[in-house]
Amino acid sequence: MAGKLRHAQRERDLARLATRQHGVASHRQLLELGFSIRWIERRQEEGRLSAVHRNVYAVGHSRLSSRGRWWAAVLAYGPGALLSHRTAAVAWGFQRLRRGPIDITAPSGRQGSERRKGIWVHRCQIRQEDETTRDGFPVTTVGRTLFDLAEVTDFDTLKGAAEEADRLKLLRLGELERVCERGRGRRALRPVKRLLAELDDVPDGGRSPLEIRFAAFVREYRLPQPVQNVHVLGLEVDALWAAAKLVVELDSWEFHGHRAAFERDRARDPKLLIAGYRTIRVTHRRLDREAAQLATEIRQLLAP
C-alpha cells in the first residue's frame, strides 16, 4: 500500500513538472523524482514517453508546442543551458516567432556535446549577471540577448528588436553597455555601439531611449510640456496633455514583433477615444524623419 502511495505521488510530481515545462522532462529529472530506468523504458515501450532528444522526453504525447520544444532544447544540454540569441529575443517578446533552429547557449565542457536536430548550440561561459528567467525559462538577459543577436542578424533587425524592447519597457542601456564591456573582442561590439549611439545613449533617470528622445523633441520645438507616464482610465499612457485630452503613445517598432502586443495596443485606443481622448503614436522613425511635421500636428491638436 505504501509503495502504491509513493508511486502515485511520483506520478503527480511528474504531471506538475511536465505542466511547468510545457510537456517535457529529462531523464535526469525522472530519476530525481524516483522513477527507475526500467520504468522509463517501459513507458517508452507503451508510448507514454516519446523521445524528443537523447534523454529528453515528451510526457504523455508526441506533439509539442513551440515552448515545449524550447524546454526540450534547454534540457538536452543540461544545467546551465539558456535560451539565447534569436530564440531569447522571441521569448522576451521583441522578435516574432520564427521557424528554424532553437538557439541555446551552454557552458563549454558540459553534457550534450553532440549536435541535436533543430538546435543551434553556442558554447561559452555565461556570467551570472547575463542570465535570468522569463516565463519560467532560463534565458539570457535583455542586454545579453541583444548583444548576441548582433552576431547573427543584420543591423536593421537588431535595431528593430531594440526598439521593440524599448517599447515594452525592457531595454536598459546601462545593462547593454556593461555587456559590451564584458564582450571585448566580439564582433557584436561594432553594431551594438552603433545601436547605442542611435538610441541617444543619455542617462536620464532610468527612462527608455524613446522617452528621452520625445522629451528632447518637446523642448526643441517648444511645445507645451506634457505629463509623462501617467494613468488615464486605468491605463498607463506615455504622455498626456490633459486639457486637450491628447495622449501620446511611444511605439518603438512600427511592425510589432508579436500578436499579443499588437492586439493589446489596438484595444487601448478605442477605450480612450470613447472617453474623449485622442491618441497619436510616435516612433523613432517619425522623430528621425518627420519631427517638424509631427510638431505641427501636435500644435494643431492642442489648439482650442
Describe this structure in words.
By secondary structure, the protein is α+β, with helices and mostly antiparallel strands. It is 46% helix and 18% strand. The protein contains 13 helices and 12 strands. It has helices at 2-20, 27-32, 37-46, 66-76, 85-92, 142-149, 155-167, 173-182, 189-198, 209-220, 259-274, 284-289, 291-302, and strands spanning 24-26, 49-53, 56-59, 82-83, 102-106, 119-123, 131-134, 137-140, 227-232, 235-241, 246-250, 278-282. A 4-stranded mixed sheet has the order 9-10-11-12, sandwiched between helices. A hairpin with a 2-residue loop joins strand 9 (227-232) and strand 10. Helix 8 packs antiparallel against helix 9. The longest helix is centred in the N-terminal third of the chain and has 19 residues, at 2-20. The radius of gyration is 24 Å and the shape is elongated.
Largest sheet: 4 strands, mixed
Q: Name the structural class.
A: alpha+beta
Number of helices: 13
Mean pLDDT: 86
Name the helix and strand elements from N-terminus to C-terminus, one letter apiece.
Answer: HEHHEEHEHEEEEHHHHHEEEHEHH
Output the radius of gyration: 24 Å
* Gap from first CA to last CA: 81 Å
The percentage of residues in β strands lies in 15-25%
Placed side by side, the strands forming the largest sheet appear as 9-10-11-12
- pLDDT under 50 segments (min length 5)? 254-259
**Helix percentage:** 40-55%
The counted number of beta strands is: 12
- Shape by Cα distribution: elongated
